[in-house]
From TrEMBL:
Source superkingdom: Bacteria
Stated name of the protein: Tetratricopeptide repeat protein
Each TPR repeat, start to end: 99-132, 174-207, 208-241, 242-275
Pfam families for this protein: TPR_11, TPR_16, TPR_8
InterPro entries: TPR-like_helical_dom_sf, TPR_rpt, Ycf3
Signal peptide: none
SUPFAM superfamilies recorded: TPR-like
Organism: Amphritea balenae
Record flagged with keyword Cell cycle: no
Alphabetized UniProt keyword annotations: Repeat, TPR repeat
Length: 330
């Protein structure tokens, strides 16, 4: 969530520690276990993190990078990401110039929120192939998550430069435009953000993710009509897209269209949360009496455990006491 509204570019958890597979500490007994432990390569120790590695080591190993990539791609096609990761590492083991293998290693770790390992793999891939647009995109996503906006901007810009030359790379190109747009919005460059989102829309006019981010950009500028239009376009493409419903509901609340706000928010959350969110919007826009009304409704729905609304209501009462003018902003 960003700025109270859902952003739709992929975010991740904080950096995970780089761990060597627990398989290295497993005791099987006898000389055979020692042989398997010795077979763990430096590349596997550096990049493997998943379920026990020993069963993969016990299998027939790929003899060439091409075979390893084929095995990895096949494993990915059936969502066996541990086996895929092992085989991408095997390809890199057999050919330390294999940038594609490193790219896929980075992708798997990114999807697992292992951002430190992922970034390391992307950067190593770029050392081997400085024009690898997908690795710039992946690096940009991690840098954006880490709030390194200047470096992320550079990465996304480089990604766009190289991916534009590859029509088959539409998805990472789309992500790069969205990433730039988010950074533009964060840094107050809303015109540039709109330009980047519209470039993404040209790639995929029906993407609810792009329309929702564009709508959020309008929301930040208090362009309510434009924001509402973008969120509705997102929902026309995917009526179950929850970030668009929530953002639309909050846009209605900012315009004091409370019944419509409740209707939109109820699509994706319990009514108590909807009341709390509307109450919060009223509070930050100094409509304190309306804030108190909705927060009390939230508490009434869940009086025993809805502590967030209780905390917000306490804050509203303090604000009302210190700023009676809030009573008239209904």
């Amino acid at each position: 969530m960003y700025g109270g509204l859902h952003m739709t570019i992929k975010t991740a958890l904080p950096f995970c520690k780089i761990l060597i597979s627990a398989g290295l500490t497993m005791i099987l007994g006898g000389c055979a276990s020692n042989q398997i432990n010795n077979d763990v390569s430096a590349q596997q120790s550096e990049y493997y993190q998943g379920k026990e590695i020993l069963p993969f080591l016990a299998e027939q190993q790929a003899k060439s990078p091409e075979e390893a990539i084929q095995n990895a791609d096949q494993a990915m096609s059936v969502n066996d990401s541990d086996r895929a990761l092992f085989n991408y590492i095997r390809a890199y083991e057999l050919d330390d110039q294999h940038s594609y293998a490193l790219l896929r290693i980075g992708d798997i770790h990114y999807n697992r929120n292992n951002l430190a390992i992922s970034y390391q793999a992307y950067q190593q891939a770029l050392k081997l192939d400085p024009k690898l647009g997908e690795a710039y995109k992946g690096s940009g996503m991690i840098l954006l998550h880490n709030k390194s906006y200047s470096m992320a901007t550079t990465s996304f810009t480089q990604a766009i430069e190289y991916l534009q030359e590859q029509p088959e790379k539409q998805k990472p190109l789309l992500d790069s435009y969205i990433g730039l747009g988010i950074i533009n919005d964060i840094t107050g460059q809303h015109i540039q953000a709109e330009q980047n989102y519209k470039a993404a829309i040209k790639l995929d006019p029906k993407s609810p993710r792009v329309q929702t981010n564009l709508g959020y950009s309008y929301y930040m500028q208090e362009k309510w009509v434009n924001a509402e239009s973008a969120f509705n376009k997102a929902l026309q493409s995917d009526n179950s897209y929850s970030p668009a419903w929530k953002n639309l509901g909050l846009t209605y609340a900012r315009q004091e269209r409370y019944n419509e706000a409740i209707g939109a928010l109820e699509q994706v959350m319990p009514i108590s949360e909807a009341y709390n969110d509307i109450g919060y919007i009223c509070m930050i826009t100094q409509r304190y009496e309306m804030a108190a009304l909705f927060l009390r409704k939230a508490i009434k729905e869940h009086p025993q455990y809805y502590t967030v609304a209780q905390q917000n209501l306490t804050r509203v009462k303090r604000l009302l006491a210190s700023n009676p003018d809030g009573r008239s902003k209904l």
